[in-house]
UniProtKB/TrEMBL annotation:
One function term, GO molecular function aspect: hydrolase activity
One CC-aspect GO term: cytosol
Record domain Amidohydrolase-related: where: 5-332
Protein name: 2-amino-3-carboxymuconate-6-semialdehyde decarboxylase
Length: 334
């Protein structure tokens, strides 16, 4: 039987240097350590997120994995450290620091913790260089944010980077970040509850309508977080608009949006069997990968609970969602 593989987890290493001194500029994230097992990510003087030892301690992660029946975690950066809004040279230094520290965390977990790197996506040449360095050092793939400022995933520079990922065989995990803010979104974690799904939906559409899937090779392995956001639910609306208002909607796409669902995958972080059924019906049983958003509180615990309790899945489909599809995404044999 295939191992159970969680493709959506995050890391926050401890012990990074003071970033203003290392990279220049100010207002960088830093870690306020409150105890041996608790800390607060700070951005300047603002509290961003409380975190625990699961973020940096491999034995804690492995214990939680054992509790949840997970054999392998893909370990990706926490998006607050992407630094896309910074000068590219500064973001490159940050990426190198955190990529090297993430390797140290994952090394303590042996082959059960699979590291994904981050890159300075605002500069495609530097992004490609850091991806190559990271792959040579032991990273297996890359996590990117879903946009760089006002540049979405159909931006020429980002497409250049995605083409390079296809060329070198690096899987790409796309995570929403830097959601819009404002009085209507700053209540009830609405930026995460509504903004994140909308961000992912917009970026999937940008790849389709911007013609990216018509430009990049089919060998590109791409997975969107959080079940693809709201895209799967509204795919019919996108197809309808493509046909009825093709004068403004079609953009650079050669075919309607539903034609491209075989070109990318989504994870299972949707929390409800009915939503998971929609994903499988929309994306196909080979394009849905187990994810949890571990170790953050909006993630799924126990990991894989929705997949395991969804009685509409056959045993073969369940095995694909729990691990087989993830192995294909990672380029590994079952």
């Amino acid at each position: 039987m295939s191992p159970v593989v969680d493709v959506h987890t995050h890391v926050v290493p401890k012990g990074w240097p003071e970033l203003s001194g290392e990279c220049g500029g100010d207002g960088w994230p830093w870690l306020r350590v409150d105890s041996e097992r608790a800390a607060m990510i700070m951005v300047g003087e603002t509290e961003f997120r409380p975190i625990g030892a699961q973020c940096w301690d491999a034995p804690t992660r492995l214990s939680d994995m054992a509790d949840d029946g997970v054999d392998v975690q893909v370990v990706s950066p926490t998006p607050v450290f992407f630094s896309y809004e910074r000068p590219a040279g500064q973001a490159m230094k940050v990426a190198r620091i955190f990529n090297d520290l993430a390797l140290e965390v994952c090394a303590a977990g042996g082959d059960r913790l699979v590291p994904f790197c981050q890159v300075p996506l605002q500069d495609p040449d530097l992004a490609c260089a850091e991806l190559d360095r990271s792959l040579a050092n032991g990273h297996v793939g890359v996590e990117i944010g879903n946009h760089v400022g006002d540049r979405d995933l159909d931006d020429a520079g980002i497409v250049q980077f995605l083409q390079h990922c296809a060329q070198v065989g690096a899987p790409v995990f796309v995570h929403p970040w830097d959601m819009p803010t404002g009085p209507r979104l700053d209540r009830w974690m609405a930026r995460w509850l509504t903004g994140m799904p909308a961000e992912t939906h917009l970026s999937v559409l940008s790849m389709i309508l911007g013609g990216v899937f018509d430009q990049v090779p089919e060998t590109l392995r791409l997975c969107f977080a959080h079940g693809g956001g709201s895209f799967p639910f509204w795919l019919g609306r996108a197809d309808n608009a493509w046909h009825r208002r093709g004068d403004v909607v079609r953009g650079q796409s050669a075919l309607p949006p539903s034609h491209y669902t075989h070109r990318f995958s989504v994870d299972t972080v949707v929390f409800d069997p009915a939503a998971l059924r929609l994903l499988v019906d929309t994306m196909g049983e080979d394009r849905v990968l187990l994810g949890s958003d571990y170790p953050y509180p909006l993630g799924e615990r126990p990991v894989g609970a929705v997949v395991r309790k969804s009685d509409f899945l056959t045993d073969a489909q369940r095995a694909k969602l729990l691990g087989g599809n993830a192995l294909a995404f990672l380029g590994r044999a079952a």
